[in-house]
Amino acid sequence: MAAPAPPLDDCLRLLRGERDEQKLAGLLVAANACRAGDAGAVRKVYDAVGPRFLRRLLNTGLGKVEGGKEEEREAYLRLALTVLAGLARVPEVAADEGVVSTVPLVAEVVSKSADPAIIEECFELLSLIAIASEDGSYKFCEAGVIDMIFLQISSLPDGSKCIELAINLMRLLVHKLKFDNMSVENLQGMTSMVTCLARLFAVLHTAVKFDALHMLTILLSQKESPLHDLLRSMPASIWESNIRVGITAILQNRVVSSEKLHALLLAECMMSILGEDWLSEDCKIQDTQNALPVDKFVLLVLESARIEVAVLLNELAYLKYESSKTSQTDEAVCQKQRNLAILFSLIERIIKMISNASSGEGAPSQTIRESTIMQAITGLNETISLVLDFLQDAKDHGQRKGDDLLAAARIVGSYLAEAPYACKEKIRNLLEFIFSIEGQDESSPFYSICFMLPMLSQITMEADGCITLASFGGYKAVIDCLVKMTEQDGIDNGSMFLACDTIINFMSNRKGVNIPVDSCFIRLLKALVTWAGTTNASSVTMTASCLCAMLIDLTSEEFLLSCSDFDTKTLGSLSELIVRSLQQDVPDDDEEQFNQKQIIVSGYRRWADRFPHVKNVVEQHVSV
């Protein structure tokens, strides 16, 4: 029969002893007390031994303290880890500053030990510390800690307890650490985690590869993260290439659709952080792995995204319009809509990358061939045609509200911005419907029209485009959109210029289309005056004044002042805007502003007599 354990008081007395021999004897007994799980007893043991002695024991075990034989050092190491792991099972103790301070030492043990039992104990201890407190989890971000812990993972036996514990610890840290308030030093630690995960994602061909993929998407998909700034500032490194290798492996092999979606999301994250040209940059890998050539990688990502989009559009259409409605259906629809949004975002970035490559504006390291560009454009045409079929389906079923429809309008707009005459017949038939699409949280159409502005500003340069826009009164929707922009906090000048260009083109090329001087017309004039009053930028002054000059050529001062929503104050502001534009010095190389000034001057000469107040103000300041 085993001898009864000495009373706790005897153990504590030994731990409080002055000689190391007493403390060691006390720890041997304390290990049993800690395993028993009595929180009160554990706290007393910890208070008695103190963190300083435990750290010294770890340092001795690591060979950082002179003296002692190798077998003794390993015994000290095992004892320190066993006791610490037992103490850390009580969250209050695991959160104590003394226990948290051992994290770098335990990480060093992981990096140096070849004993699976010791490594397992280390990972269990580190997990308990990470769970117990915020300070505990942030301790892992100190310089070198993450590298010491996780760089060894790829060499651990597949399916071992060590691998399981290591991945659980990394997953815990990924979910628990928040970047928003991190110091630069801690963020450096997080870049090490990204680097470690990228390597695992590239080199492993086990379930850990998918764990690494999921954690990378969590770390890199956070919007406006300070971690992204640090990653962007890092010199071109192997981690980017490792992620490319991992994505290639996932997309080239037979894996479930959800994992391919994760890989495509990761590609979208990389393009978001490092720029669209990341996809087509020729990154040399200084390793034994053979990376896929750039052209094949671009087409692999695009074709994979196109396949997933085609499947999702088909499934969404069935769930929304043909299947019986249940709560499960609603949940499935929401998940598919989220996945579709990710894929659309990726394809939009690829469109931008193809545009850069075609125009020669891509990064110097871009090596994508013209044949690849043409192949990509053909694929994009097919996908946009499918998206338009999806919108046609929604139109046929009387559906015009939903974030999936808005996302579809956005990707169509992104593509048409680069290829304004693509899918011409389908666009002509669907443009009015697209203008009516509302996001889930919108009370009236706005963003769907904004998405079409780059295309509209191009097609209205020709009469056919103006006829299409006039056929359903689309120019009024553009005017409403422009007015709404001026009512928002922080006017988006880029969209404002596109809207103005569209209306200027429309008025110049409308060929007999009558524009009634109604409330929509008055609101546009007031919006343009408001916009011009927010900045001294010459481009804003000239664009707003040019459009105003064209609009008031359709009416008279007397008529405008008879309108209830147009007053002398607005007329005064309009007069000041015209004066500012006429006084504007136009640079010799700015053809657009030169043309705008020509329109303003010629317009003024035609309508000045109909606007005596404006004429009086202009003549006081400038000679026309």
UniProtKB/TrEMBL annotation:
Pfam families: Neurochondrin. SUPFAM superfamilies: ARM repeat (SSF48371). InterPro entries: ARM-type_fold, Neurochondrin. This is Neurochondrin family protein.
